[in-house]
Specification:
The protein is built from 4 helices and 9 strands. With 206 residues, it is an alpha+beta fold. It has 2 domains: 36 residues; 166 residues, no CATH class. Strand 6 and strand 7 form a beta hairpin. Helix 2 crosses helix 3. The relative contact order is 0.14.
Length: 206
């Protein structure tokens, strides 16, 4: 059997071409996935705040209530990791940026009628844990002043809802967390609803 070298070259060329095309398509898809912007990067914000608060020796006064009982404590987290632990309840908001969820949210930009701030409102009609998040900012979302959000969880054993707020003051050109609050309720199966709240006030020494 006579082998036609021209045919082999053409086949090899076609195979290489298809391989290269496939690699280009895969690279393109990967780039789109990597470069796709988040709705709002909560994790990055909390990480940068934890680092700043640690470097500036901030302290935290917390008032915690559970139904009628209350407790007040003041702590000075020792490092950025300890601050991240204090703020971890807000990490749940990052769920809006999961690829499976992002397309189910709608973002719109509004003027705050009560101040000179703007609002990035992130909302959904889908059954997702974060039902809405509002980012109040000045000029750009990097200059955040306040974040409000609502988070829900439910399964066969319990149901819970909490409203979360973070408040910031600009120091130089850096937004710095100065206060936060968490108000929520939780109902376990066959038990009464428990209401709780946490209020935090942060202080940085002069």
């Amino acid at each position: 059997m006579k082998i036609n070298s021209k045919t082999i070259k053409e086949k090899r060329g076609g195979a290489v071409g298809l391989f290269c095309l496939g690699m280009v398509v895969l690279a393109s898809c990967a780039d789109k996935d990597v470069d796709r912007p988040n709705l709002y990067s909560v994790d990055s914000l909390l990480t940068s705040q934890a680092r700043y608060l640690s470097e500036n020796k901030a302290s935290l006064q917390k008032i915690m209530t559970l139904d009628e009982a209350g407790e007040e404590i003041t702590v000075t987290p020792k490092d950025a990791a300890a601050w991240e632990k204090e703020l971890e309840i807000f990490e749940a908001l990052e769920i809006i940026n999961k690829p499976i969820n992002m397309d189910l949210y709608r973002s719109e930009y509004l003027a705050d009628p009560k101040s000179n701030l703007n609002i990035k409102a992130i909302t959904t009609q889908a059954d997702l844990p974060v039902t809405y998040m509002k980012v109040y900012y000045q000029n750009t979302t990097d200059r955040v002043r306040k974040i409000e959000a609502e988070y829900h969880e439910s399964n066969s054993l319990y149901r819970s809802a909490r409203r979360l707020t973070l408040e910031f003051t600009e120091v130089g050109s850096t937004p710095v967390l100065t206060a936060y609050s968490v108000e929520g309720d939780q109902k376990m199966f066959l038990s009464d609803t428990v209401k709780y709240s946490i209020e935090g006030a942060l202080t940085i020494p002069n």
